Protein: FCD domain-containing protein
Organism: Endobacterium cereale
Amino acid sequence: MREERSGEFERVNDLSESVSDAVFRRLRQDIILGTLPPGSKIKLEKARERYSISISSLREILCRLSAENLVLAEGQRGFEVSPVSRQELAELADLRIVLECHAIGLSFATGDLEWEGSIVAAHHRLAAVERRLLAGDIARTIDWVRCDWEFHRAIVAASKSTTLLQHLSSVFDRFLRYHMLAGSFRGNAVVDDHKLLFERALARDADGARQIITSHVRNGVEHILREPQFLSKP
C-alpha cells in the first residue's frame, strides 16, 4: 500500500509491499535521517549487502532517489548522497510554505468531523512525544519525526489532492533532512507552534494557520543555520 511518500519511516510493511519498495523506503530513510551523510559515496557492492537486494534493483532505486534530488548519479563514477547547501535549504523552505499554505486553504474548506478527529488524535500523539523530548529523552527523536509529519499531514489531508500531497511530502522530508543533520530539537518554540496550528485548524482559521506555518518554517531555517556545520555552506 503506497501513501504519500513523506514519513517513509513511519510505514509498516504489508503483504503488498515489494522488496524493491521496502529497500527504497529504508535507503530513503537512511538519507533523510543522516545515517548516510551528505556527499558520501554509495558503493553498490556494500549497499547490496546492507540492503539485501540485487545490483540492478539497487540502481533503479538510486535513480528514483535521484529524481527527488536525494542522490546524485555521477555517470561512470556511480552514486553519492546529495550534498546540502544554504541555497537548497532556502528553496525547500519557500516551496514548503507555498505548498502547505495552499493545501491548508483547500483542506479547511472541505474538512469534516472525521478530519477534525484525525487532527485531534495526531496532535495528541505529537504533544506526548514532544513532552518526552523536552524532558531530555532524545531517543524519542525518531518518534517525533513520524508524529510531526502525521500532524501536518492530518491538517492538509482534506485537500483531496493526491498530487499536491505527494509533492508536499517529498519537500517536507527533504527539509526535514536539514533538521536531522542539525541534530537539535527546537524545544518549546516548536511545541507552541504546533499548539497554535492545532487551534487554528479546529477554528478553520486558514489565514491564521498560514501565518503560523510561514513563521514555523522560517524559524526552523534560522535554527538550522545557527548550527556550526552550516555556517560555512554556500
